Amino acid sequence: MSAVPVEEIARLMLSSASNLTLHTGNIINWNHLKRKTSQNAGEEVVECLNATLNMWSSTVDPAWMNEESNNALVVTNPHQMERITEEERSKLKVSVKIFLLKWDPDLVEEAVDQVCNELDIGVVDSVLLALPPLESEMGEELTVNHILPMWEPMERLYDVERVSTIGASDLDKEMLEQVHGMARVKPTINQVNVVSCCVIPPDLTAFAKENDIQLLTHSDPRDVLPVPTFQEILRGSSHDDHVDEWQPFWVLRYTVMVKCRGVIKAKGYIVNGRRHAAEMPLSVA
Is the pLDDT at 96 greater than 50, yes or no? Predict the structure, then answer.
């Protein structure tokens, strides 16, 4: 029997998986990204995921063909993986933003556990939570009752010292005030989207100042990885006729900064997606 090309092995691995985690590794030194300073997070994550899948599919270990298939697959860019050593950890600040794409509080701790495992760290210095778009049955307006169940895992992570600082993203003054008043562990950071809000509202600024909440700005899109976009990324790498069964569940962006210099040492994305249909049989075309 002739050897199976590594690209075909990668295609089979993707086609047989039902839970997929992709890690771009450190993208700081990607020369083609340096020239695209106007990219938003949505454009950047798509380009990085495509590059990661392409690199992985050309270097996947052929020994997989002799192993039992695992429905959970982790795809990494083998040339960009950088773990943080114990010696350098105290000199670095690791900040994370989780873009939830499903209203499932368990995904928060799952995402934090994944980045800790990938970077080989025990504590994340700062985690910001971006909530997903409202689903049709949830009504048209975001309420504190939507937010608090998603905030509880953030509080648990803080309690067990897995995360040092927790914050939110895109909460207006009313929502921030309600969450701050009802949460057991208060948000100390709130991100404001400068694309939809060129000037931070004065009432939000005043409330943040009164309650020691740091206001940061960002330009991330509301839906950082739409379902059709994720499916198209997988279609290009897996040639899977069933990519419409896949949905992204969360996107995590991390930055690693050298504290004394204020220089970003590393930046990367970790994305999780899942296939909802019945498990597909593994076969060689």
Answer: yes
